[in-house]
Specification:
The protein is an all-alpha fold. Helices cover 81% and strands 0% of the residues. It has helices spanning 8-28, 30-41, 46-75, 81-97, 105-133, 139-166, 175-200, 213-230, 232-261, 266-290, 296-314, 320-346, 354-383, 387-410. Helix 10 runs parallel beside helix 12 (320-346).
Amino acid sequence: MNKSKLTKEEKHWIMYDIGNSAFVLLVSTIIPIYFKNMATKGGISASDSTAFYSYAISISTIIVALLGPFLGTVADNKGFKKPLFTFFMMMGVIGCASLSIPKIWIVFLVVFVIAKVGFSASLIFYDSMLIDVSTDERMDNVSSQGYAWGYIGSCIPFMVSLLLVMFSTKIGISTSLAMTLAFLLNAIWWLVVTLPLLKNYKQNYYVEKTKTPVKDSVKRLEKIWSELRNNRKVLIFLIAFFFYIDGVYTIIEMATSYGKDVGITDNSMLFALLLTQIVAFPCAIIFGRLSRKIESDKLIKVCIIAYFFIAVFALQLDTAWKFWMLAVLVAVFQGAIQALSRSYFAKLIPKDKASEYFGIFDIFGKGASFVGTTLMGISTQIFDSSKAGIVVIAVMFVIGYFVFQVQNKKSNVEI
């Protein structure tokens, strides 16, 4: 098999990254700006609206973190993964399409939480599908390709949405209608691009279905925690992942709220974050190719160090050009650290228990996101400044790096 050429199954898997990334880009750009403007009209201060938005993200995160291990264990039963994936994907799609309905900020956050839960839960099954569609030798590159094409592909619905909102009056529609069309467009994109995966995916690794699959899944879930205690390489990696991905997710989800708080205009932020997607595309592919020659654990450490300095740089963010610089720096490493962490973990775990383990993986990832956004919300309200939360994020990267170093020393297995 040509190592550089993607198989049909790998291409269909990558397409879901392209589909759901449209929603991810909305979450990091238009949605927080739209919400903050709605909250301001409702008499909510800038710091409080940032805090409330971060709490909404935290709530959606903890819901998925609590459900993840159980859902993942059930999904490992033969024939269960695709239906569960489809259900939560559709929950996200419908939630995204419905975001234009609420006119009160608290109701908007409720719908947002529903959409976010659907999106995040679908990733538990999607990430575990990597084992079914690829091989250990190809996973780093395929995972990186997923993030890369997700970045560039999401620009298509985003650009159309942005043009609709910015030029709504010139084309004779209200801003409200433009936002409705934008949410619908991204929801339809997400669904349509996912169809090839839904049609062609086959679950190659699974646990044979029993007469009581849910009950037996609960029993398996109890056993997996014992397995983790004995598999120190996986456990220590998950602890390291918890700390460093905390900062990554918080930066992704709170960048525009933070930028708005320090005085960056809406247009500057939107175009800077569009630039992030464009720059991230080749960078994710480059890191995927580098993983063929350089061990993925070394590349992950480079990304953690880079993110620490990005957080330090964010502390003195006060002008549009600095926000643009921050966007470019994030773009270089954002896809790489997520893609390589996903494939690194996939190679550590038993294939027939992939969804179970990715359910645990999701606990640590979503738990980190919960902690990060919650700490940012609390510190922002206490100190009345978003910069206080950035300090916490920088510390998380330091802890994550040193725990990851311990994980490397504990292991006698090369990835």
